[in-house]
Amino acid sequence: MKVNDNMVGLLQKIMSREPEYEHSLTEDDYISEDVGTELIQIYQSTSNLETRELITGFMHEAGYRWLRRLITRDAEHQVH
After folding, report:
1. What φ, ψ does residue 41 adopt, rounded to 5°?
2. What is the pTM of this model?
3. Domains contained in the chain, number
4. What is the pLDDT of residue 33?
């Protein structure tokens, strides 16, 4: 997944709303390679609608395959 500036901004907003997940989304101030999969898992576990909207926006920016994985709740397979 190629992360653009808009996605970084969305990720920062997500982390501000869900600080308990920050460690799984970043590694030493860099975005984790598994950020997409982690966001799907956060989407499934949170009841915060703002967080869900932000994650949906992030996945929309990431591309069709990631948005499809979010909608189908597929957090198991990696997408390159």
Report:
1. -65, -40
2. 0.87
3. 1
4. 78
